[in-house]
Write a structure and sequence with these properties.
Helices cover 30% and strands 22% of the residues. By secondary structure, it is of the alpha+beta class.
Length: 326
Amino acid sequence: MAIRGVSYVSGVRQGPAGPALWFDAADSPQELLDWVLASLVDDLRAAEVSDAMVAAPPRSRLAGSDRSLLAIPRAATLRLLPGQGVVPAEWRDAAFEWLRDQVPDLEGLTVMHLLVDAPTDPAGARRFLDHSRERSHILAGGPDRVQAAIGGFFGISPALSLSVAGAPWRGDALLRSAVDLRQLARRLAPQVSLAILSLEEWLGATMGIRPPANIWQQGEGPQPSAMYMLCDELLFDAYPYQVLGPGNLRRLGGPPEGAVPLPGGRVEYAAGELREWDPRGSTRPAVRARARAALAPCLASRRQAFALRQARRGRAQGPGDGAAAP
């Protein structure tokens, strides 16, 4: 029976301390809230659950455009996409190794998704990411030092992102972090359908389900939700550095000028120098325009992306699968 006034019930999901269920009854009368909580406690007892807690957690910073995330400046982000597969366990291993390199003491370690925003320990953070089935992030670091984040994206948008940002940086610190991320992309290249390295002005801009891009924001390209299914052939946009797979290269007619071969039939393509992509610099628009021109065959319009999806569906269905029985 639907309970009027309870606007959302999550179902059981993985929290930082174990399985958890969330419900939103913020607009419910107190009598209804008391009844819901009492019923929940009765159900837990009936199931012989002896260790549980009912609490009102703080609102997650990922639930909206939280200023604390948007205010962390200058971010370097590597996003690894497996295409239509799942995020491999080896990527998560590499991500946690990288996180410890960036923030050795894991100060301020927290886990976040749209419902959870809570401190945890390293084992809890890994368990949280391993069991997540929605957009989730692990953040380490403090306001006066480097902050690093692991982002897990699941469902129709499988990807893993690694971001490092922080106000105290000066000089080439951001570029050195970007070079480290580029090395990780090379190491994992044989497993990726696509890898994207971007430099953004704020950390919050890197945490969405979509990679930072401008073409789709301007309405010129396909929706990113469709792109995740096509990223073995199409690209979201031009970026400072990408690992391109065999499908991208076929569509391009070969490696773009300056691309360097990598294992597994991949290539790395650096579009200009990293410092030319400084989010606050004057050279970014011009270098991005040149990169878009070089990658143009992979920057499809919405109509082209739709036609590609239809063609793939037709090939998967086969010539006789849709015929009526005689």
